[in-house]
Amino acid sequence: MTSKFIHRPVLSVVISLFITLLGYIALKQLPMTQFPDIAPPEVNVTTKYTGANAEACVKAVVTQLERAINGVPGMAYMSSVSGNDGSSVIQIIFKSGTDPEIAAVNVQNRVASTLDELPEEAIKAGVIVEKVQNSMLLPKHIE
To answer: Scanning 7, 56, 110, 118, which has its CA 20 to 30 A from the CA of 136?
Structure first.
């Protein structure tokens, strides 16, 4: 049986290309439910408070934002990190099954409601709310 493929290499190439083509067609027709999201949705809020250390950043910016964000529908937990350069990141992890687009909009609305309580320098540098894609895709920014 294998001698047919050795003596007729064109037949071997044609069969290989045919199998590859069928595999490609089958892959394109798989429904997206075959590839579910495994990681829970995540939204990050990034701030920059120019001229402040980590402690001042936590007291003036992060605490205010955490109070506003706490209780967003579908939220599982929240964590924050502040650096001595005045930057801070608040990670909000949502329960699996939560729509990441709606979660990001809800967080953005909560952040917008507390902007007037933040220091002027933090508002000038910007408060960025971004949905994090836990895949190889680039994150989508909501500003």
So the answer is: 110
Cα–Cα nearest to 140, from 103, 96, 93, 89: 103
50 and 20, same structural domain?
no
Our count of domains for the chain comes to 2
- For residues 25 and 54, membership in a common domain is answered with no
- Please give the Cα distance from 142 to 70 (Å, whole number): 19
Q: Under 8 Å CB-to-CB from 59, ≥6 apart: which residues?
A: none
Same domain, 17 and 79: no
Q: Write out the residue range of the structural domain in which residue 129 sits.
A: 42-142
Residue 40 DSSP one-character state = P
Assess contact for 115 and 123: CB atoms under 8 A.
Answer: yes
CA–CA distance, 143 with 84 (Å, rounded to integer): 25
**pTM score, two decimals?**
0.68
